[in-house]
What we know:
- The complex is a heterotrimer.
- Chain A is built from 13 helices and 17 strands.
- By secondary structure, chain A is of the alpha+beta class.
- Chain A folds into two domains: 8-304, no CATH class; 347-443, Elongation Factor Tu (Ef-tu), domain 3 (Beta Barrel), CATH 2.40.30.
- In chain A, helix 2 packs across helix 4 and helix 5 (179-186) runs parallel beside helix 9.
- The longest helix of chain A has 27 residues, at 245-271.
- The two termini of chain A are 30 Å apart.
- By secondary structure, chain B is α/β, with parallel strands linked by helices.
- Among the domains of chain B are: 66-247, no CATH class; 317-372, no CATH class.
- Chain B has a six-stranded mixed sheet, sandwiched between helices.
- The radius of gyration of chain B is 24 Å and the shape is globular.
- The relative contact order of chain C is 0.10.
- Chains B and C meet through helix 5 and strand 1 of B and helix 7 and helix 9 of C.
Amino acid sequence: MGVPGVSLLTSLARLRALDEGIAQPIATVRHCHLRDQPMVFIPLKLSGEAAAPLAAMLGTERDRPRLLVVSQPRNRDLRFAWAAELAGVLLPYIARFLADTETVERRGADPYERALDAPQLIVPNAAGVAFTRLLGRSTRFRRADGPYPVPDVVPLLGRWLTYFGERAAYPGSSLMLAATEELGRHWASGQSSLEDANLAALLGWITEGPSDAAEDPLIWPPAGPATDPGFDAEVLAPAIDSGSAERITEALRSQLEPTWRLMWQAIDLLAGLEAGASVAQRWEQDRGSFSGMAQSIAEGAPPQARRDGAIAAAAKLARMERAQAGYEVQRAYDDPLIMAEYRLTGEAFAGEVIETVPDNVEGEGRSRKLRPLVVIKTDDPVRLPPGASLGTPQRRGQGAELVSADEGLVTVKITKGMGRGKTPTPGAVPEVGERVCYTSLTDDFQGSPNLPDAEATPWTHGGPPQHHAAEHTPDDEDAQEEWS
Amino acid sequence: MSGMNTQQRLDALRGATPPRPHDARAIAALAANPGCTRRALMDGAGADKDAAARHLGFPAPFGQSPFAITRGNVFESLVKADGCAELLRMLRELLGLPIAEVAYHDVENVGAHLRHAHTRALIDRAARDAQDAGTLYDHPLLTLRIAGHTAYLEPDVVAFQLGGRFHIVEIKSFAVIDGQADPAAVAAAARQAAVYVLALRTLLEELGHDPLQVSHDVVLVCPENFANRPVATLVDVRKQLAVLRRQLTRMTTLDRLLEGLPDDLTFDLLPGEDGRPTRPVAELADALRRTTARYAPDCLSTCDLCFFCRDEARQEGASDLLGRQVRDELGGVGSVAEALGLADGARDPAAGQEEIARLLRNAERLRRECLT
Amino acid sequence: MSDRLDDLERRIDELRAGVRKAMRARDGARARALRAELRTAERDWDALVSGEQPAAAPEPTPLVTVREQVHQGLRLLGATAQPRLIVAVSEAFLGGTIRSAQLTSLRRDEERSFRTAPYGRPYYLGAALTDRLSPARGLLTLSGWPLERRVVGPLSPRVDFLTCAIAVASQESEDERATRLLGRMARNIPGATNASSGALGPPCPERVIEAARAELAVHAERDTRDRAELARRAAAQLDDAARLFGAATLSTIKKEYVT
């Protein structure tokens, strides 16, 4: 997750927002997938405890929130009963997507089944993601038999919550989103990123401008998972002492309902943006990953290990770094405002085509190749050396090379994607007067996005599910771990 | 020039408001924003920032849930139960504490006014004669001089180990899950423990012993995973100690911060008979504005005055509001109007601002191009 | 009667709102006063709803009193102990029903009773005495024990813990709570758990006893010496009441925690 892109462009947008009293866009398209009927999930936890649930409001329809409450938060058994109730809502939602699949062919490996659609969880903030992961950690090793039995859906829920929590850290994944993070990727507020973690405050900036009310817990209760200490002292503690489940439930409802409304407001705002061109492709990877997880559960794999072993951790890190790089390139190609960051640093430039040599060729005889030349006039500070290889959002299949850059004039030679003909196909070479953008940012996704090598593809990324239990097999100790 | 010495001036700054004693958390927070003159002066004078903030209409946004407090107390008593049985197990594992080392002294068995003297005597005995020393000192009371005031500090436990090393034991109720804990919580615990290390080292030095007998590795005790079972970890607080020392040294030079401030400047709340402040709010706000604050969003979690200073930064249009990353990105352009003026060309760059001005103008051009 | 209940409920709601308001205004004194009223109202409501008169609302007398349960727990343990351990032992082996909150005023009540009518009861629940002969915080003893057992030197908390562990391990019980208690104690005694088979599973009582005795042997000599010296001083300097409940010092200023 991390801080949404800190760059001079974003900083300038923040300054502008502060000056004008309203958030400024820092993206022109939506960079996350947003499905219809996402599962909005707002968990609350008991203060002072690592992962003791208090309540959750959740559901896929804005006018039908479900409220699940631990009716006596000090009772451990009731926490597991609550987890079972949560499973009763989330597991059927997940199962809905398992039936309809497509067969995906892979080079050098067996084809696999990929879900046509996948579930999506949306929580208010990064802390909500972390709590979901902890909730998963605290339930996935439980057992339905033995000394401390729990309802049998609880460990299964734990594995899914763990999966969603971990997947949320995967760059560009949309299976689990944090509302403040996604909003912060698309709008710059006039406050610090620390204050942006307050959903009410951030939404205030985006819609009507800042308001002190957003920080008043009596008007906008915190979006969880932590509750307002004043609420704990003055409302919740007396309610718990009274022993009245009804009082506790109503108290917690009062803390969750305002956030529920904010969550749907956030979803509406994001839905108002058109999806970026690469969003569908990343969602496809999400679907593959989801199917891999479902299959590994179906095949009886053990729950995710407590910690990755050294090798698995290194592989995961490398995978995340590749995904991060790919995600950044895709966002730049999808969105001129993101690309502008690279134009500012000289890694990209845009401008008008003023001259072309469409039939320029290199080599003789058989090795004679079509290498059209394009001259672009730009105001951007180009900091690329001659010979730098380039890509362009306007023609994603093409590759080019920088020939020279001088005094605002850049000559580019198209080197890839011109076919074998003696003359270029119509439209392959930009016309004089067309606005184009070239950048040294390139990503493998331009190759064959749908058919990665099976071995090279981790299961979390849509590859074959591998049982990653070799380094740690959960034992009885995990199942019996105290949960206080 | 002022006719008063520094201490008199600090007392005048605080006025009739009773001094607010420093605890370890407050001292640790000093180190969080060493550049803030307003905070340095208020803390130096022992002014009650919380009361001032409330009187100004900007109460601090902190508060601790009773559930968290209860949980903390329960966990601490569990660690210390039955002659610190759990703690002994952990110290044996972590420090190789010999089996014979179990002597336990509850300093709180003496009266409150004797606790510091008793702590002093016990620590002196341990440092002088390791053979006959105790091992665990529960509820010790240490002191530290903060700008002329004595702050009383209560570490959870001091452990003394054969071989002559003292360790500060800090008991916290945030969980360590699969070997990982909330980094912010660990950092806060380390800053607080560093205050205790410094206080204990100061005590040893005063008693004529080697201050480095106090280890810079503190023992942090937390619940493990989702159970109540405690687990101990050694945390190196050398860096926190260095920051703390630097800040405390800075506080002893408060006279320089006082230079240029009027003699009659005071943060006095003028408490009435019922203790409620009677000072006109505008007057207090004016007095505070005479001192320079260095607001940063981090203040929101550490300083009682944060909302007042944030409001001031807003009125001044300071780019500090947006956080350190933005401030660094702007490289020395302090105000929002100035930065925006440079960006749209309405303002000419001052000497040294040429590069940031060029970048801002470029950024502005690109944003306009992409958004129209 | 239901009219009166309605009235009380309304009153309780008002008082709760008042407490909240007072806390908002940081008016601690008013909040405390209102809270006290609130408690009275709640007690009246409880009494009324269960068909009793408010004036007579005694706690239902258990078959065994709290002080008797503590007495039995301490006898089983055979050494000074904290209320928490006494409660756990009472639950695990004696079918006890003590709540920790019931123990807070116990020692004060015992002292008052003793001072009113010395030795009027067959036994008293006393305080352990520190090296200053003041009452040790949170450590209970039995009046019938020799003075040496009722004083605590620096090593005594550990020695008494080990003694208690041996006592717990020597008890027969099928109760799961007993197993858990022994497990918790064993974990903190070197060699008491079988590390190779995992710290899981019930600890072996013989092994716990053996390990506890081994560590006791390390501390016994010095602890016995310390305690004998303290006992000698206590016998010489203290009157009967102070020997049981500790010498009042000038400095017993209790810290008040506001919760």
